[in-house]
């Protein structure tokens, strides 16, 4: 088919188009990648030089002519109301809204509870030094308490992925003067086997309050207030003595689920050696600290049976919240 035949056929089909759909079909047929006109332009390299110039000029002129014809016809159809009719009585399509991850919901709830008690929210690095993660928390290199944390050590000597957000305690005290009350939410890492209640990556909230007259009674009140606001006034919990190298005395907090007690968090009064590391005088200030896992709180609050569900990326799980 020569150029004049292509022109007459294409222009006729464009003119006959009764709607935008037919016009688009004609455009694709005569100007698309598989059209005869584009095929003719691609075959120019095989033509003699004298014929190539003549055909090339005519083909390009025709291409512009067809594009103009399509534009004119489109404007004509639009002016005649060729757009699809809109049925205003037809029900609209339901817009699917997103869902908050249960860890996000729990973090926001816990943050709001502590902010209402005049705590400030502080952030800290996930890649931490051995100094802040262990040494200043009353755990020198030969201390057996280090075995309580399964640690991801990095290639750079003395660096690790933090095993708890307690690493921010001395970091914060070095640059701030008491009194203060802070929480430190963030991700921590443990080198341990995963199962329904353990993960290598989890989220924790560290709390620290330091002042002249801070006491264990203040700690108990803070924890009690948080638990009752989070789980309701009827929640049953208990304090029992425990051991942590950076608090003295130390306690653990359990909550009752059904007929069994579940370990929830550790806490205690800040050890004088931690104050020494921060260059605070233990005779002038006292403080309490606590650490609670957001994953554990979310599992209790929302009845999640397996911690691994929260890191599965399964949208069927997230859409339940």
Order of helices and strands: HHHHHEEHEEHEEHEEEHEHH
Q: Report Rg.
A: 35 Å
Q: What is the spatial order of strands in the main beta sheet?
A: 1-5-6-10-9-8-7
- CATH homologous superfamily identity of the largest domain: Bira Bifunctional Protein, Domain 2
What is the count of distinct domains?
2
CATH topology assignment of the largest domain: BirA Bifunctional Protein, domain 2
Query: Ends: how far apart?
Result: 64 Å
Query: Any idea what the CATH architecture of the largest domain is?
Result: 2-Layer Sandwich
CATH class division of the largest domain:
Alpha Beta
Number of strands: 10
Strand fraction equals 15-25%
Task: Write the topology of this structure.
Elements: H1 3-16, H2 20-31, H3 36-42, H4 49-79, H5 102-116, E1 120-121, E2 127-129, H6 130-133, E3 152-153, E4 159-161, H7 168-175, E5 180-189, E6 201-211, H8 216-231, E7 237-244, E8 247-257, E9 260-270, H9 272-277, E10 286-293, H10 294-302, H11 315-318
């Amino acid at each position: 088919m020569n150029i004049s035949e292509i022109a007459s056929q294409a222009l006729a089909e464009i003119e006959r188009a009764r709607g935008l759909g037919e016009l688009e079909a004609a455009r694709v047929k005569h100007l698309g990648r598989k059209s005869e006109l584009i095929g003719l332009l691609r075959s120019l390299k095989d033509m003699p030089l004298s014929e190539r110039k003549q055909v090339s000029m005519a083909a390009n002129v025709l291409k512009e002519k067809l594009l103009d014809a399509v534009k004119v016809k489109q404007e004509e159809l639009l002016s005649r109301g060729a757009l699809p009719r809109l049925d205003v009585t037809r029900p609209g399509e339901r817009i699917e809204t997103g869902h908050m991850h249960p860890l996000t919901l729990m973090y926001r709830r816990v943050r709001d509870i502590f902010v209402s008690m005049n705590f400030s929210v502080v952030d800290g690095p996930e890649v931490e030094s051995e100094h802040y993660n262990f040494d200043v928390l009353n755990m020198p290199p030969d201390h057996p308490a280090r075995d309580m944390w399964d640690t991801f050590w990095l290639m750079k000597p003395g660096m690790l992925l933090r095993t708890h957000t307690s690493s921010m305690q001395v970091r914060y005290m070095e640059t701030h003067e008491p009194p203060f009350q802070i929480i430190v939410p963030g991700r921590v890492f443990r080198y341990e086997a995963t199962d329904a209640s353990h993960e290598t990556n989890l989220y924790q909230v560290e709390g620290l309050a330091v002042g002249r007259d801070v006491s264990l009674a203040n700690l108990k009140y803070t924890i009690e207030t948080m638990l009752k606001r989070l789980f309701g006034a009827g929640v049953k919990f208990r304090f029992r003595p425990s051991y942590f190298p950076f608090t003295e005395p130390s306690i653990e907090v359990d909550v009752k689920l059904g007929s069994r007690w579940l370990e929830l968090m550790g806490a205690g009064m800040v050890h004088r050696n931690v104050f020494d590391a921060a260059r605070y005088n233990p005779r002038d200030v006292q403080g309490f600290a606590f650490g609670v896992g957001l994953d554990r709180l979310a599992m209790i609050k929302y009845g999640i049976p397996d911690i691994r569900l929260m890191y599965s990326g399964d949208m069927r799980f997230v859409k339940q919240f």
